[in-house]
Amino acid sequence: MKELGVGIAITGSGSATPAVCLDNDRLSEMVETSDEWIASRTGIRNRRLAAPDCSLTELADRAAREAIAMSGIAAADLDLIILATSTADDLFGSASTIQASLGARKAVAFDLTAACSGFLFGMVTAAQFIRTGAYKNVLLIGADILSRWVDWTDRRTCVLFGDGAGAVVMQACDRADRLLGFELCSDGTQNKCLQLPYQPQSTELLEGVAIAQGTYHPITMNGQEVYRFAVKRVPEVIEKALFRAAIGVDDLDWLLLHQANQRILDAVAHRLKIPDRKVISNLADYGNTSAASIPIALDEAVRDGTIKPGDTIAASGFGAGLTWGAAIFQWG
Ligand code: ACO
Hints:
The protein is an alpha+beta fold. It has two domains: about 5-175, 3-Layer(aba) Sandwich (Peroxisomal Thiolase, Chain A, domain 1), CATH 3.40.47.10; about 180-190 and about 220-330, Peroxisomal Thiolase, Chain A, domain 1 (3-Layer(aba) Sandwich), CATH 3.40.47.10. The chain has helices at about 25, 35-40, 55-70, 95-100, 120-130, 155-160, 225-245, 260-270, 285, 295-305, and strands at about 5-15, 20-25, 45-50, 80-85, 110, 135-145, 165-175, 180-185, 195, 200-205, 210-215, 220, 255, 310-320, 325-330. A five-stranded mixed beta sheet has the order 1-7-6-4-5, with helices on both faces. Helix 3 (about 55-70) packs across helix 4 (about 95-100) and helix 7 runs parallel beside helix 8 (about 260-270). The longest helix is centred in the last third of the chain and has 23 residues, at about 225-245. The two termini are about 15 Å apart. Acetyl coenzyme *A (ACO) binds near residues 37, 115 and 159.
């Protein structure tokens, strides 16, 4: 294992999901679909939806408090807060609002957007600040409320997504570095496969002075393209991260993928020759919660004792951008 200056330990996790649960049968009352189609094609049975008065900040705050409590530090000890999200309450960013609600007075806070890869990108970003010695205690949150940006008349996308937040605390440590390797990738040439684009409406302020005002168009996705991309690129990027970590597939205790589709999880595990019992999945309960899916699944597995201190995990995020990445780390 490579030693890179200050070591990193992931010492706390937390998660929060909205109370309202929409199952496949009730969804079938809204669009022409069925529990059988959704469950067999995706593995999803339920998704949690944020009520109109629920903010992203509120969900993120709940997840963050759990992670901070598990790590044993105080919010006032945090040096940095990174909020990975595509659905901030405020287009200027929501990380500062979370900093204020937590009372993390000395922490610098910013948002990071990389869609469903956001948590992975955030973990690697946080690691750079810790390894350089700049910061010791980092709170990383992945949170999204995609239900606000889904076309609820489009059965090809609305069945997939749910809302939630997950968080981890990453700390500098004197022991061996627990982030063993990573690899991040982007391919903007395939951006159109998965978009939530701004839709400009031209307004003429004065003669010869036109600007655009408008809102965002709901999610559009070429499902088959994204599926093919994930099944090809995710095993590749995990293999690169394993190479950097100087360990093999057999050294992994858990495969923790972005929870997009059970068929993608199964295909990636199959390509890497990782047995099903090592694949973490909570898709049936929450669907695709975007940047929140990896930390929610991590937190649940830590709290129910599935993931134990010292376990080695390959995590991989993939999604809009297109973006994808993997990190090999040890819990605790
Ligand atoms: N219910 C019933 N029928 C449906 C539904 C539905 N909800 N959705 C699509 N269909 C129909 C289609 O209309 C099509 O019918 P047709 O053959 O008569 O045209 C048929 O089912 C097959 O459609 P496909 O798109 O080929 O279905 P597929 O097996 O590819 O599954 C899915 C679609 C689940 C979207 C899959 O392609 C997938 O999971 N793709 C990856 C999505 C993903 O991972 N996104 C992650 C990133 S998310 C982010 O970054 C925000």
